[in-house]
């Protein structure tokens, strides 16, 4: 074999071996992610897989899971650790793609992750039919932010009109228990907002304008129910079934509209009922809140869910990409000039 051919064959073998080595390394990580019993090991592997790309040049793997699928596989592992079971993962035969569904939910609804490509990284868990993003998840920064607006849109305004609370409840349980598990096991920062069940929690509200008549409208809707709206300092309250108490009130705050900052509070004595539970279980409160959202609604993390903020960031990124860049000339070496 000539020296030139020998070098070419050796180079060929090395490139193939490097590609195969990278594939084998990926396979080992995937196998461990799927079978490891140590949650911390699973978390580390999920971090690695959701940020890695298998861009081998000579050995091509035509069917691969996407980064979004690694998030779904990681979610499934953590749900199994948290003993959450009322869901299924669909895997189509013709492609590698993971979709989460709820077998008991008698409404077409499928869920996947959508990788976030801005500087925040992470991924959104969304319902495909409506494109509603229910939460944001960053493995790197250990953050989970739930989206009160999309959760209300999907579960209260959409699903609740079409099916029973019992069929919706597994989705609520999955979201809540996933957040609790990640917070307890890994020290995640979790913004539950509408899912929070702690009795002394005051739901932070985004006031778009002064909600004049907010309590009067609740009184009118409650009049046809078995529950009596009672006056409390700066607001009103309702005592529902099982001694669950709902309070709607304001505190004086000079920085807000008309110096009134409004809050919702849910008290059940066991830290087990959320504002979302109330909206789902009591149709008249759900109907009231859906109308009042034009004035006041439970707030989510604006960094990842504020549409106006995202649009500004997208325009800024587009402007940077479209800006004229100075041409950088790379001088030819003497050898390259002689070859040309």
Describe this structure in words.
With 340 residues, the protein is of the alpha+beta class. It folds into three domains: 9-63; 64-195, no CATH class; 197-302, TATA-Binding Protein (2-Layer Sandwich). The chain is 43% helix and 18% strand. It contains eleven helices and 13 strands. A hairpin with a 5-residue loop joins strand 10 (235-239) and strand 11. The relative contact order is 0.09.
Query: Element order, helices and strands?
Result: HHHEEEEEEHHEEHEEEEHHEHHH
Number of helices: 11
Separation of the first and last Cα atoms:
29 Å
Oligomer designation: single chain
Percent in helix: 40-55%
- Quote the average pLDDT: 84
Structural class: alpha+beta
Largest sheet: 5 strands, mixed
Number of domains: 3
Beta fraction: 15-25%
Entry keywords:
disordered C terminus; WYL domain-containing protein; alpha+beta; 4-stranded antiparallel β-sheet; 11 helices; 340 residues; TATA-Binding Protein
Secondary-structure topology with pairs:
Layout: H1 3-35, H2 39-50, H3 67-81, E1 88-90, E2 99-101, E3 111-115, E4 123-127, E5 132-138, E6 143-146, H4 148-158, H5 165-186, E7 189-191, E8 205-207, H6 214-222, E9 230-232, E10 235-239, E11 245-252, E12 260-267, H7 275-281, H8 283-292, E13 296-298, H9 302-305, H10 307-322, H11 334-339
Parallel strand pairs: 6-7
Antiparallel strand pairs: 1-2, 3-4, 4-5, 5-6, 8-13, 9-10, 10-11, 11-12
Helix pairs in contact: 1-2, 2-3, 3-5, 6-8, 7-8
